[in-house]
Design goal:
Low-confidence stretches: 77-84, 90-95
Order of helices and strands: EEHHH
Helix content: 40-55%
Mean pLDDT: 80
Number of strands: 2
Number of domains: 1
Structural class: mainly alpha
Distance between the termini: 53 Å
Strand content: under 5%
């Protein structure tokens, strides 16, 4: 049985097990999906939109690190950056 590849994750010097790494990856991808698909997930005010944009940027960075380490393995591809659907609209209003 082939076990799907997971990123190598260390927290406070402790290397996570395969299952723990999978749990972290799933948590990161689910929250990233929430931030990038819902309208104003952290609030419709300027602060909420700025926080959403900042979180999406950081999650893109984290997911890229997770995926880039696996790209050499069969069946894995590079992640493409995802932005919040309201990002352009917010940038225009805050400009």
């Amino acid at each position: 049985m082939m076990i799907p590849a997971e990123p190598t994750i260390t927290i406070n010097g402790q290397l996570l097990s395969h299952g723990q790494a999978m749990a972290v990856r799933v948590a990161v991808t689910v929250y990233h999906a929430t931030l990038t698909t819902e309208v104003d997930p952290l609030g419709a005010d300027e602060h909420g939109r700025r926080m959403t944009k900042a979180y999406v940027e950081r999650y893109n960075e984290v997911l890229k690190l997770m995926i880039d380490g696996l790209e050499q393995r069969p069946g894995m591809t590079r992640m493409t950056e995802v932005t919040h659907p309201m990002a352009d609209d917010f940038d225009e209003r805050s400009g």
